[in-house]
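If you are new to this repository, start here. Below is one unmodified record pulled from the training split, so you can see the exact layout before writing a loader.
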Amino acid sequence: QVQLLLSGGGLVQPGGSLRLSCAASGSAFSINAMNWYRQAPGKQRELVARITSGGSTNYADSVKGRFTISMDNAKSTVYLQMNSLKPEDTSVYYCNVQSTSLTLPRRTYDSWGQGTQVTVSS
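And here is the target side for that same chain:
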């Protein structure tokens, strides 16, 4: 069982920046990948960025070049640096972690945080 604590959301003007953090906690687990999703009212959930424990990343086309995902393995924390924010980035952002238990029976898990609001408006 993995719990996720999200922080860093808020209100920012277009062109501004925000940094989201997601800390994973629990016992006897290994993180395989962490993902940032977002979902605006009435819209489909979208994968924004992904990072694996090995450091490989990928981004949605809509945020490529503006957002950067990174991970602090020692703290089991993933970050999303959001620059050059646009009104279309306004959404609730969710952290997702894919993990494997280190206890028996070994299982894979797909855990979700509660989400944090990001609003980009002038």
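Two things worth knowing about this chain: The chain has no helices and eleven strands. The chain has a mean pLDDT of 94.
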